[in-house]
Write a structure and sequence with these properties.
Elements: H1 2-10, H2 25-59, H3 70-92, H4 102-130
Helix pairs in contact: 2-3, 2-4, 3-4
Amino acid sequence: MIFAALFLLAQAPDAVAECTDPTTQGEMNACAKQEFDRADAELNAVWKKVRGWAKKADAKLDRGDGQSGYAESLLAAQRAWLTYRDTHCQLVSFDARGGSMQPLLINNCLTELTENRTAELRELLVNQVSGEPKTLPET
């Protein structure tokens, strides 16, 4: 009985150290999760930069027009995007609903949309701050 429990622990998806050639569904799921975690960390790093810029821009903003500021608009957009991302990726995974492949589909979708959002935030930062398009260095 103890051997069986140890065997199952050894097969746990989180036990994958490298994701060069995952072969089992558990390994593929774990690697997809690792990839999403990487993309999410990058998004959070870019988010901090954009959020900092938005707060500084608000300090210089004339609020007499009744519109929301940069930071408020940015936060509302990010919250709406997070709701969209999570709901959309849940929907995309329904072909494998309840199956062992569902986490792979969810995490692949989350990674793709998160990488796209990170690029959008980089573009926003560069274009809003400088006024002309250019490339922001990767973080």
